[in-house]
Each structure stands twice: as C-alpha cells, then as structure tokens.
Amino acid sequence: MLSINGLSISKGGKNILDNINLFLARGEKIGLVGVNGAGKTTLLKILADEDEADLGTVSLSGTFSYLSQEIHMEILESMDKELSIGEYLIIEKELDVEEWEINKLLNYMNMQGKNTDSLLSQLSGGQKIKVELIRMLLEKPDLLILDEPTNFLDIPSAQWLMSFLITYPKAVLVVSHDLRLMNKGISKIWYLNDVKRNVEVYKGNYDAFLKQIALKDELLAKTLKAQEKKVKRMFEYAKTLSARGMTKEKMKGAKKLELARKEKDKMLKLSKELVKSKKMKITIPTPYHCGRNILEVVNIKKEYIKGIPVLKSVSFEMERGEKISIIGKNGAGKTTLLKILAGRMKQTKGRYQWGMGVVIGYYSQEYEDLDYEKSVLENISRLDWGDIDRRSFLGRFLITGDMVQQKIKTLSGGEKTRLALAKLFASRSNVLLLDEPTTYLDPQSQEILLTALKEYKGTILLVSHQPEFVKRLDVDKVLLMPEEKFGYFKEEYLDKVGII
Fold it and tell me: Is the entire prediction scored with pTM above 0.85?
C-alpha cells in the first residue's frame, strides 16, 4: 500500500538518504531504526506529506494517520489554550464520535481524573500524546505512522499501546527506542544505515535484526581478513616478478601489480561497510564548588485550578552528591515540581531554598531553553564557555559542520536532545534537574549518557520512566508521586517506575 521509489533526502547540506526504494504491504508492522540523525523523522515527515524529498516519489493507497515526534509541543501551538479534549477531537479534528467513546479510551490510557471537559493546556507531555493517540485510534486509518509513540508514556499506557498495535488489523510504521515495543509488535525492520545512506530490510523483530547485523558483520570481517591476505600475496608476487631482469617478467609483474591494486580497491570498499556510526563522547566538566546542603523543600503545593491540587504538600531535602529519582505516573506532578524548583513556575503554597553556591542546570523535556527560530550557534552564543572550545565540545555531542547553522526547528528530537545536553553540561552546573533526558536518544547514546552521569561529581534530581536507567544510575533516594513520600531507594521501587 506504500511504495517509495528513488527517494533522496538531504538536510543541512548533508546527504542523508540516497536513492532508496521500499515497499510496505497491507497489514505489515514495520519498525524504522537507526542512530540519531540518520533521517528517521525526516523520512516519516515525507511519507506523511509534511516535508519534501529532493528526488523520488512516494505513493500511498488508503488512509493514514501520523503521530509527530513532538506532538506534545505542537498540539497547542496554533489553537485556543482553553480548548478541551472533547472540543479538540470532535471540533478541531472533526471526529464523528460520542464523548463516551473518548472517555472510554481516556480510561484505557490511564488518564483517571481526565475527561472530555479537561483542558489540553493543563495536560502533561505524556497526557497530550495519549490524546493524540486516541485521535488516531478513532480514525482507524489503513496505515499508522508513529514517531516515538511511547515517549513520555508511563509503563501501563505503553503496554496498552503495544497490545493495541499487535492486534491492529492494518499497517503500522513506527520509530521507537522502546525495545519492548520493537520486539513485541514488529515483523520487519527498516534499518537506516547512516554510513551507506541507504535503507536495509530485515525480517523479524528488533532482536532478530541485531542478530542478523552481528552475523553479517562477523562474515564481513572474515571476508575482509582473507582479502587482506590475498592482496598482500599479490603485491609480493608482483614485486618479485618486477625485480627480475627479463623484460617479459617485468611486464608480467606490472600486470600483476595492476591486478593487486584493483583487489586492494575492492578491499577498501569492503572495509567501509564495517565503519560504524559515530558515537557521542560525553565528558561533563568539573562543576562549581558548593556547600553541603543543596536544597530544602517545605510543603510545596501547586494548583492550576483552584481546589484541585497537582502537588499537595511536597517536602524533602538534598545533600551534595546525592542522586534522587522522582517516580510517578503521567500527570502526577513530576514535571511541575521540577519547573518550580528551576524557577520556571510559581508554587501556590510552601517554600524551597537552594544552598550556598548552588548553580542549577535544568533539562526540560520540552526544550524550554532552546529558541526554535534561531540557529544552533545563536542558541549557545550567550553561554559562558570559559576555557571550553565550543566547536570541539559540540562535536562530542555529534553537532558538527553546517549543522551549527541550522535553525533549531529543523533538528530531529535526538539532535535537539544532544544540543540541550551540551548546553547543560557546558554550564558547569553543580545541580542537574533532569526531566526525561533519555527521550529521543538511541540505546547506544542512552548508555553513553548514563556513564557520564554516573561519573558526574554534582547532585542530580531525575525524572525518568526507564527502570533500568534509574537502577544503573545508582540513585540514593526517591520521591514517590502522587503519594509525595520521600525516603531511601529500595530495589522494589523499580517496579513502580512509570507505573504508580
């Protein structure tokens, strides 16, 4: 039902995909994978008719619905902030449904306390994504195009979505770094190879894809080793013939030398297939010194609507060097609390006090510190870099070349994440407030970020829906939401990450 012919895509002066040809049949479940910056989001936008390719054509027979990677930000940009969920879906999106049908799906998506009368502007990032997923499910298209659908979703909602996609009778094309989703509901992988700038097709789920890639690399390495030995022998034989006095043998040696050079060219071409994607190389500069007492929070309360508290009475303390995780479901107030502590929002009641010498670094899941209409360089120009070489430092986050001239709005989610992290770490903050920092990062980049945070000498307050990330960060304490219970970390709390 979807045919891609001779598609070529460039972005920011860089050739991303070159002359790709793909076919998606009715009912197929395909996972689109590749490292950050390989072009996954760009390709989906072209398929969804929201962007244009340089060359080639896309043909689609049937209907489709597209979930943008950053729909939680886009959903309110061009509409009334007083719009309710029901008004958005029934009036704005023109869905022919009853309110009870929407409320039923809101309940399935773990949106207790929310209904068609709830305002979109008061929803968390994860809740906005749920509303957009509900819109797509009610449309029942022939093809679902999903760009990171589980981002910002709590675990029950992500599991419900996985179950839905597995049983969905029509086609699905999904980009996701959630390996549970890519292993359960996917029957074919499209791999965007950023080195070859093409798309390779593999049957099976993500785990099967990894095994096939590993086997392919192993066979390639063996072939390359044998080719190197062959080329070496050919050069030695040609050299021996050329050293002899007879003209006939010298001519024969010259021919053998030419053959050896051709075989060497083949070997070099083969070796390029073993070249791997570039990795981030994060090293967090030594943070500024500060006192032992980092933060005191006393009875913080927050209400968006009078009489309906998001935060009831949050109290806790932080000491230098501690790593604390805030655990709770979508809408429990995790992001709200971080925004208050970062000075981006005013609490309704209560107080908090930062310690002596504290320098706060805030990572927002919605990139609040990035100006979308300005370039990368313009976004970092006012930062005090000290003795840090900014070009070299950005390069460690794979922000290189002409990319620094691109406007933020043209970057992928992964590229925005890497830039936001680069700005954060360059500030030498001794306290990091991190709101879902792994979102949009591929598994390899998540691992690199984890290693850097474990080596970080400052203090961390983290929001994450990833149990493994929380566990391996070796957090000291937890704040459970919405219970607002604070205490030392216990292994059993990992079962509640993103669930309670």
Answer: no
